[in-house]
Amino acid sequence: MYTVTGMPLTRTFRVLWALEELGEPYELHPHGPRSPEVQALNISGKVPVLQAEGEVITDSTAIITYLADKHGALTAPAGTVARAKQDAITHLLLDEFDAVLWAAARHSFILPEEQRVPEVKGSLKWEFGHNLARLEDKMTGPFLMGEDFTIADIIFTHCLNWARSAKFPVEGEKIQDYGKRMRERPAFQRVAALAK
């Protein structure tokens, strides 16, 4: 049994979705970022946090990569070209989508008010839309890695949903169809019910 600490509306959603896809049991401790419960596990106060094998693992991508590798699903095998390509798309998603959304969030409500630059959000929205159009041009199958659903799809779908809630542009018929199909997955639906 895994223990997950974090609120489902955060990047914790990614970990819960991966666990649901894998069919692995877990216990959710719904504590928010920077809460005493989270800071006791992660000095940065960020969520999610996974407790497994007597250890604490932080960072949503590190956690879902660990889970996928451990259970031999949602990923190409380590040491293969397919895995290198999957890792490349994962890093692209983190750099060009997650980081852009995180910058907007920081300048909306996370940084101290005197440190926020709200005007940067227009530039970030443009960058997000530009990156989305480039990725859409490269999509060739039902999933980011072609025929296989992987952790990259979990990260990207989470970013698309985050973008919608932050009023970022999510355009392009292929992207919209992709997002709809991902949100229809039963494992996604189970986690979405927890987030309500």
Automatic annotation (TrEMBL):
Q: Which residues form the GST C-terminal domain?
A: 79-196
Membrane-spanning parts: none
Domain GST N-terminal, which positions?
A: 1-75
A Pfam family cross-referenced in the UniProt record is GST_N_2
Q: Mind telling me which PROSITE patterns this protein's record contains?
A: GST_CTER (PS50405), GST_NTER (PS50404)
**Superkingdom, natural source:** Bacteria
**What protein name does the entry list?**
Glutathione S-transferase family protein
Q: Source species, please?
A: Leisingera aquaemixtae
